[in-house]
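Example record

One chain of 277 residues, shown exactly as stored in the release files.
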Amino acid sequence: MDEIFELLKPPKIYEEGSSEYWTNPLLMERILNGHLNENIPGGSKSNSFMEDSISFITNIVPKTKYPEVIDLGCGPGLYCQKLARIGYKVTGIDISSNSIRYAKGVANNENLSINYRVQNILDLKETNKYDIALLIYHIYGSFSPNNRKRLVHNVYKSLKKGGIFIIDVASEVSLQDYNEKKTWDFVHTNEALPKESQLSLRQDVIYPDNVLLKQTNILIKNQFPMTFNIWEQYFKKDCLIKEFSQVGFEIKGIYSDVCGKQYNKGNEEIAIVLEKV
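Predicted structure tokens for this chain:
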């Protein structure tokens, strides 16, 4: 019992869990299904939203002028496929080998020429290669301030001069009425074991400066517990702009989402279009 109470102590801000959520073999299929089923919250945006965002992207960065694009944290390649079908030269990287395996399968079946690779987006090392970089669905907010700085610097280097970086984040508005909570349930992560021997303890904890922790502890009989810490930063517009301006990006446009909806400070998302100058 003492061990369980110890697990539920809130960690230091941005502390990593004992296991990596996105690459854990027990969760890979669940994560992939979340991406592919728009009815599962938190996986991917709806297909209609993605179609609208593709229209926005192709309008502001047409393939005739911006032919080469990289999708950072591409998951199973939903945006990559749509862009490749209309003629962009596409690279997609993601930390999940399972998602990349699925994405390659779709590309092969449709004869799409997409360069997929398994890679942590923090480790992007290319220079002056891409015309467009995409970082969509609040991925940026999952990193600590130091890792965000590292990521933005690497994206800046990877873009050609005049290249465009399109990114969206959750705004501080979406955290204003959020309530901390603790829940538990039986889960079925390991098919070889009965569900009753696998317990999930979840807690959402709000930290200073609009940071939220979504923590899951999975206890499996006769195994060490697994702790997954998912951090989410909720941004003020001015703070977000400062993070990009410090690296050298110029702000080209601010919107309420990556479909190009007019910016409103009361919206729960912020999308920014940046240019490498």
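Notes: The chain has a mean pLDDT of 92.
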